[in-house]
Amino acid sequence: MKRLRNQLILVAVLGISCLAVYELMLTKEAKESLKGAMSSVSGSYSRISGIISNHIGLVMEEETLPNRADALRQWAEIGYGD
After folding, report:
1. Is the overall model pTM greater than 0.70, yes or no?
2. DSSP symbols for the chain
């Protein structure tokens, strides 16, 4: 329990420190640049996530799977076929 408390305190301190640096030490141009970079990363993540989800959603018919006929023949030769 003590470890969890220490980790939460560390996260809170880091968050407050980052916010203070952002608000007090960055210029207006640096803030705009950082916002643009975050927007770019977010957009890239969305595009990659969409591509991956589309790829995972593809279903191939059994007849079109590569080497399926060879695999079935080999299994039948060793006694595990239909």
Report:
1. no
2. -HHHHHHHHHHHHHHHHHHHHHHHH--HHHHHHHHHHHHHHHHHHHHHHHHHHHHHT----GGGSTTHHHHHHHHHHTT---
